[in-house]
Design a protein that fits this description.
By secondary structure, this protein is of the alpha/beta class. The protein is built from 16 helices and twelve strands. It binds D-xylose (XLS) and calcium ion (2 copies).
């Protein structure tokens, strides 16, 4: 088997004092944290689109990285990508991968031909997985936003023919996900949104999006799929307004259409930033509503208004993310998919490894810090104390449904001024505790 990265050996864990850039400083796959190995806790995944296909092309210039994998023929290239992906996963100790149908195999002249070639590549991946059962599919999805037919959306297209075409494509992507034993299927609303309401029947578009999701779930269950379905919120880009704006908006949509028992969230850090939320906010909304599922691990740039999909290196963010993941009970079918790309200027093969190492180490550190935060207990205790008035007296009566508006009026009239029942929010002290725990040098 050809090696695509012959100058790069399997990346070892060398610990925090190592200066070898091609080593992990914090990610030690077999180290046990919180009763499970890091590998089981973090469930890292490679994203096929960025890593195997993304060559740095942007609207100002062509690609800088060579992602042809030495092949010009399209099927040969698709299979070379598979070989290279498995080499990368092996050398980085990554167990999972995520894909769009068209990342694996492009479109050909007709849908039938496209499907036939796609099957050939999926079968090839299945063979590789049979030879190395440590490699698993975290989730699959369909790229219903690339081709011109999807210019006005897929499930929300004004054309019923385009809706039908998208359904056919999604059915096939579900088949592939099931064939590869995927534990998740993602709906990211690529162009499911609008540019102007002047030409848009928003009510019909949302009804149709729900219809497509209902059909997809029913079909997948009918063929024995037992994994999760995820919606991945994003507020804008490519459309001005994306219907799956943020977790709270998606929850409203799911509940309206009776889909809330069928879907969880795939939360992406950069999309949270675009929605002007913190990553932790989106995770908390998902956790509090019982719909936390999976994560697209990356980071945006707060100075830019677009989706930069950078590798995550901000340890404050990864720590607070892992804090939410642990509090949500950890990953079940989900994991940490690196929906991230090396910068256009980081174009060498080595940069693929260096960027994954940076992201994986940042999450390994985040995991360790999150456990320290929980074991330390000061933050949790502060929050518990802050809400102590809800476990006794009038607070408990309200929670137990025993207090009426009239009861509360009587209580307030008797009590007098209540400002003294408050105490300081101590934000600065808590941020300092966080620093103390993170950098307990
Ligand atoms: C784009 C999305 C996309 C989804 C999968 O912004 O992040 O890559 O994760 O379709
Ligand atoms: Ca994503
Ligand atoms: Ca993104």
């Amino acid at each position: 088997m050809a090696q695509y990265f012959e100058n790069i050996a399997k990346i070892p864990y060398e610990g925090k004092d190592s200066t070898n850039p091609l080593s992990f400083k914090y990610y030690n796959p077999d180290e046990v944290i919180g009763g499970k190995t890091m590998r089981e806790q973090l469930k890292f995944a490679l994203s096929w689109w960025h890593t195997m296909g993304g060559d740095g092309t942007d609207m100002f210039g062509c690609g800088t990285a060579d992602k042809t994998w030495g092949e010009t023929d399209s099927i040969a290239r698709a299979k070379a990508k598979v070989d290279a992906a498995f080499e990368i996963m092996d050398k980085l100790s990554i167990d999972y991968f995520c894909f769009h149908d068209r990342d694996l195999s492009p479109e050909y002249g007709t849908l039938a031909e496209t499907n036939e070639k796609f099957d050939e590549v999926v079968d090839y991946i299945a063979e590789k997985m049979a030879a190395d059962p440590t490699k698993k599919c975290l989730w699959g999805t369909a790229k219903c936003f690339d081709h011109p037919r999807y210019m006005h959306g897929a499930g929300t297209s004004p054309s019923a023919d385009v809706f039908a075409y998208a359904a056919a494509q999604i059915k096939k992507a579900i088949d592939a996900t099931v064939k590869l034993g995927g534990s998740g299927y993602v709906f990211w609303g690529g162009r499911e949104g609008y540019e102007t309401l002047l030409n848009t029947n928003m009510g019909l578009e949302l009804d149709n999006m729900a219809r497509l999701m209902r059909m997809a779930v029913d079909y997948a269950r009918s063929i024995g799929y037992t994994g999760d379905f995820y919606i991945e919120p994003k507020p804008k880009e490519p459309t001005k307004h994306q219907y799956d704006f943020d977790t709270a908006t998606v929850l409203g949509f799911l509940r309206k259409y009776g889909l809330d028992k069928d879907f969880k969230m795939n939360i992406e850090a950069n999309h949270a930033t675009l929605a002007q939320h913190t990553f932790q906010h989106e995770l908390r909304v998902a956790r509090d509503n019982g719909v936390f599922g999976s994560i697209d691990a990356n980071q945006g740039d707060t100075l830019l208004g677009w989706d930069t999909d950078q590798f995550p290196t901000n340890v404050y963010e990864t720590a607070l993310c892992m804090y939410e993941v642990i509090k949500a009970g950890g990953f079940v079918n989900g994991g940490l998919n690196f929906d991230a790309k090396a910068r256009r200027g980081s174009y060498t093969k080595e940069d693929i490894f260096l960027s994954y190492i940076a992201g994986m180490d940042a999450f390994a550190l985040g995991l360790k810090i999150a456990y320290k935060l929980i074991e330390d207990g000061r933050l949790d205790k502060f929050v518990d104390d802050r809400y102590a008035s809800w476990s006794t007296g009038i607070g408990k009566d309200i929670i137990d449904g025993k207090a009426t508006m009239a009861d509360l009026e009587k209580y307030a009239l008797e009590k007098g001024e209540v400002t003294d029942s408050l105490s300081s929010g101590r934000q600065e002290m808590l941020e300092s505790i966080l620093n103390n725990i993170m950098f307990g040098l």
